[in-house]
Amino acid sequence: MDELGKPSPLPPYPCVEELLCEVGDPRVVLGVPLFFMQVTQLRCGGFVIGLHICHNIADGYGTTQFLKCIADLARTGGDASQIVLPVWNREILTARIPPHINPEFVGFLQRLGSKGDDVMLSTPPEEMVVRFFLFGPEDIAALRSHHAPAHLSPPATSFELLTAVMWRCRTVALGYEHHQRVGLMFSMNVRGGGKRHGLVPHGFYGNALFYPVADTTAGELSGNPLGYTLGLIREAKRNMTDDNMESMVDFMASLHGRPPLTIDKMYEVSDMKWIGQEALDFRWAKRVGGGLPMVGDISFDSVSCHMRCKNGKGQDVIVINMILPGPAMDKFEKEIAVWVCNGQDEK
Description:
About 30% of the residues lie in helices and about 15% in strands. By secondary structure, the protein is of the alpha+beta class. The longest helix has 21 residues, at about 325-345. InterPro entries: CAT-like_dom_sf (IPR023213), Plant_acyltransferase (IPR050898).
């Protein structure tokens, strides 16, 4: 644990390849197990659980739900009365015949497969740089107090706030022209549960993520107050209606047979803070760290993930990864420092 960063490990984690089992080519998804798990016992008595999943089949919520079932069965001696029973309902995610794709997805479809002049798609993987950015309670409070609109109701969530700032700083760092269109795509869990309505029912273990998209020009994004960016994110969330989700299912089915997705000037974000890892109880000990280790296919690593960790003070902090070409990363670090430092200085 000392080598991992005791008492509060934060990514990037050293020797992470040794904590994950070898699964071969991660791009091969047929004829292989859907789930791999390696449990590594450390000399100090701690444990590390390393997971591989086929993301076409399962998402972070479903994987954590599966782990929770394992933990509950182990802790209760096999009592299955409290576990979340699986449901299938795959027909919910079947494309309609004939398909009905909303106009906004038609425009989005036309951008697929076009690399244009996006430096993110033309830079070789070996010239990319990965950094992790940590935001503590003071950072988030400063950003919300001095950059988020006071009239915004309800107040911006930490995900909305940090995603808006990261998107703006990334766009500036990559040097996109003011007239060029830039996009933000982020994951949204559409499971139901409690009082929450969802497209798929509670207990679905598969992939139930949909991806709202916000779109604007680089000039509008960088030239307007942060409230403009927050408004784009909220509008994208509001547009994720049942009708639009069904349209997205039809849209995804239309991609069958196409090459892997490449989306010009698109920033992809995933929120992993609420998938429930911190609640896992194997009766060994409490979880002290986790998240996405940043190994494997660089195309997936380009997604920024919001991860929940603890800092040295025991406070909950949010860690976000970013991958950029070297020169752009230098500029990004300066841009993000201005946003955080300005808020704290004013405070």
